[in-house]
Design a protein that fits this description.
The complex is a heterotrimer of chains A (about 270), B (about 160) and C (about 100). By secondary structure, chain A is mainly α. Chain A has 10 helices and 7 strands. In chain A, helix 2 crosses helix 5 and helix 6 crosses helix 10. Chain A is globular, with a radius of gyration of 22 Å. With about 160 residues, chain B is an alpha+beta fold. In chain B, strand 5 and strand 6 form a beta hairpin. Chain B is built from 4 helices and 9 strands; from the N terminus they run ααααβββββββββ. Chain C is an all-beta fold. Chain C has one domain: Immunoglobulins (Immunoglobulin-like). Chain C contains no helices and 7 strands. In chain C, a hairpin with a 4-residue loop joins strand 6 and strand 7. Chain C is elongated and about 55 Å long. The chains are: A mainly alpha (about 270), B alpha+beta (about 160), C mainly beta (about 100). Chains in contact: A-B, A-C, B-C. At the B-C interface, strand 4, strand 6 and strand 7 of B face strand 3, strand 4 and strand 5 of C.
């Protein structure tokens, strides 16, 4: 090879490598940022608070939540979050962790549903019991495999409804979940957008909630995450614990089944 | 607190009071605690802050390191650590140049405490971040630019 | 009425590593609430750590420390079972002290 040509090729290769390398190191630094945050997740503070709330007699019936059945039997919390949502024979409904928790607060502790859900997410200076309890319940599934096969006919129906909502274009922007979350390699600014139609993509998303959002200084539950996604897509916002949100959860958890929970997570 | 001690605290002006007070026999090691350094935390520029900390013209030093990512995904929480290989480190401070008040935190390290602290700071925008270290009665400084990105939606 | 801290302290090779998470809003005094009023500053100003009653760290915070502050540091000495306590005071005079045994 001619020396000049070699130099020219090397230069061309460098020029090509340049921008790619730049982006690579940006992503490396973002990864480093996330790694530095992971050791010392403020969600742990909320987990401890949730445990206290779970065990403390409260409400008109002055009862704790320790007999709450999250799907694996009364009081059995280990791995319970990872297999939700599921069909519950006592309510004849498919319920997610949050709707089941509220059911227990109503049936065991005697709160009205309105009381139980009044502050379903926190604001600065206003704590949310639900947020703390869901963080605790979620943490009890850390390391467990997501397992939502959706075999019960009602679960299968909800998975189907969730899939329909995922792909349905709606709202003033004619937007669907799938537009942002149905392809590989998409991002908004520096945030990668997971492809939620694959096991790995759905797993990355689902396994890390509930999650501490550093931008909000609060743990977000899956309900809050999905309701806010819909707000960002300029859809009408569903009510807390709406069946449409639970249906989406069934679809996403079914797709993510087999991936391992790493919760509470921490995100931007 | 008695008035005499308060006067000495004022005169000392911030970091490194422990030695002064202990030498004056006014405190025992167990109660070494300076008053919150309002002047330093209220200062609006790096120079003013350094002055309030009694650290005029600190020397740039490779023996002071700021451990932080080059890019923060969100300015509300930016992990920042300071480590030093200098001997006899007595105090460490973290300053964010473009924050309304640069001083984020200061630490007094009793003998036996390692020159290594990590915390998390808020940053309003991309800025140089300074690590100030007092060792053997002298001040040393190092800086690093941390870029703060605008967020998309949070995964 | 402040929530408890989460403190991890572990001794290894003659050095004790301490990691603390504090539950605190750390209001800067620059944020506006939904009605447009400035929310007054409210933040941890001082933090101290003691090992078996001996001070191992004294820190001062400004408003730029993130909500739910995190602090990690190391000191020489400390053995499994020793007491390690952390205290903070905030700008309104609220206080909190928590204690753990070194692991």
């Amino acid at each position: 090879m001619q020396p000049n040509l070699r130099t020219a090729l090397a230069t061309a290769a460098l020029a090509l490598a340049g921008p790619a390398f730049g982006q690579g190191s940006t992503m490396d630094e973002i990864a480093r940022y996330r790694e530095m945050l992971a050791d010392g997740n403020p969600a742990e503070l909320l987990e401890a608070k949730g445990e206290e709330l779970w065990k403390k007699p409260r409400g008109p019936k002055n009862a704790s939540l320790e007999q709450c059945d999250m799907g694996l039997g009364p009081g059995k919390l280990d791995g319970a979050y990872a297999q939700l949502p599921r069909y519950f024979a006592d309510t004849k409904k498919v319920m997610d962790a949050e709707s089941r928790l509220v059911h227990c607060m109503v049936s065991l502790q005697g709160f009205t549903e309105a009381e139980a859900t009044k502050r379903w997410f926190s604001k600065p200076g206003q704590d949310s019991d639900i947020e703390a309890l869901v963080t605790y319940i979620g943490g009890k599934s850390n390391g467990a495999k997501i397992n939502v096969p959706a075999r019960h006919p009602e679960e299968a129906r909800m998975a189907k409804v969730g899939e329909y909502i995922f792909y349905r274009r709606s709202g003033p922007q004619d937007f669907s979940c799938a537009i942002c979350h149905g392809q590989e390699g998409k991002r908004i600014r520096l945030q990668e957008l997971g492809n939620l139609t694959t096991q790995a993509g759905a797993g990355t998303a689902m396994s890390t909630w509930p999650s501490y959002r550093v931008s909000q200084g609060a743990v977000w539950t899956m309900q809050r995450r999905l309701i806010d996604c819909m707000r960002q897509a300029r859809w009408p916002e569903p009510k807390y614990l709406a069946d449409s949100v639970i249906a989406l959860e069934v679809f996403l958890q079914k797709t993510a089944s087999g991936t391992v929970m790493q919760t509470p997570g921490i995100k931007r | 607190m008695n008035n005499q001690r308060r006067e000495i605290l004022k005169a000392g002006g911030g970091l490194g009071l422990f030695g002064l007070l202990a030498a004056a026999g006014l405190i025992t090691p167990g109660e070494a605690r300076a008053e919150w350094n309002k002047a330093a935390f209220d200062a609006k520029t790096i120079d003013e802050t350094l002055k309030a900390l009694g650290a005029t013209a600190p020397a740039n030093s490779a023996d002071v390191q700021l451990t932080a990512p080059d890019i923060a995904e969100n300015g509300a929480v930016v992990p920042v650590g300071v480590v030093s290989t200098l001997a006899g480190v007595e105090a460490i401070a973290i300053l964010v140049e473009k924050n309304p008040n640069p001083l984020a935190a200061s630490f007094m390290l009793p003998v036996g405490t390692e020159p290594s602290v990590q915390t998390r700071v808020k940053m309003g925008q991309t800025s140089d971040v300074y690590a100030l270290v007092k060792a053997g009665g002298k001040f040393f400084i190092a800086k690093k630019e941390i870029k703060v990105t605008l967020g998309g939606c949070g995964g | 009425m402040a929530d408890p801290m989460k403190i991890r302290a572990s001794a290894k090779d003659g050095i004790t590593e301490v990691k603390v998470l504090m539950s605190h809003e750390m209001e800067t005094g620059q944020r506006k609430d939904s009605s447009g009023n400035l929310v007054p500053a409210h933040f941890i100003t001082e933090i101290t750590a003691e090992h078996n009653g001996r001070q191992v760290l004294a820190g001062q915070f400004g408003t730029a420390i993130s909500k739910n502050p995190y602090l990690a540091f190391k000191f020489k000495g400390g053995a499994k079972g020793d007491k390690l306590s952390v205290s903070w005071v905030d700008s309104k005079g609220d206080k909190r002290t928590d204690e753990v045994q070194i692991a």
